[in-house]
Amino acid sequence: VLSNNVKEIKTTKKDANIPIYQTELVYFADVGQRVYNKNRSHCGRKCKIIECRDFLNYVEQQVKSDKLWSLDAAAGNAKRLNLFEQTVTTQTLYNWVDLGLCNVKNIDLLKKAGWKTHPKKVREHKKCLGRSIDERPSIVDSRLEFGHWEGDGIVGKDHKGHWITLIERKTRMGFVFNVEDKQSIRIVE
């Protein structure tokens, strides 16, 4: 009786339509970034150095010849005489020299070799507005001792309304005072 209800399953041959494995699409951030960078490298204007090779060779010859022309003079002469269809600006030539894309080096350029680089001057504050908050003792930062207060000024919209806030560091208890303006005489009152 039991054998009639149980069906016997036999596999005689492998069905070609059933796949052996299943594919699953998974996103990997590094692969996505690599694809993006590759596609991004194809964007934008390509360097004109290949199109302007004859012009660049002419400029290199003039700069390295006995005439000792500057890049600007050589490029200007070529443009004035219409020697080449494709040219680039003087600034582009100097950029190519800095990047090492042509046979001219900075030492070959008489004026540029003597240029002084001027570092940016760090401008100091014109007037000292008091001690910095960084100079306060470390005991104040730890909030272990009562009696250290922080003050701040708040200015309202269109400079209407001025408030002073005082907050105690340990208990974080605060007070807000309304003052007429930002003058020190009014604040001390």
From TrEMBL:
<dbReference type="GO" id="GO:0032196">
    <property type="term" value="P:transposition"/>
</dbReference>
<dbReference type="GO" id="GO:0005829">
    <property type="term" value="C:cytosol"/>
</dbReference>
<dbReference type="InterPro" id="IPR053392">
    <property type="entry name" value="Transposase_IS30-like"/>
</dbReference>
<dbReference type="GO" id="GO:0004803">
    <property type="term" value="F:transposase activity"/>
</dbReference>
<dbReference type="InterPro" id="IPR051917">
    <property type="entry name" value="Transposase-Integrase"/>
</dbReference>
<protein>
    <submittedName>
        <fullName>IS1470, transposase</fullName>
    </submittedName>
</protein>
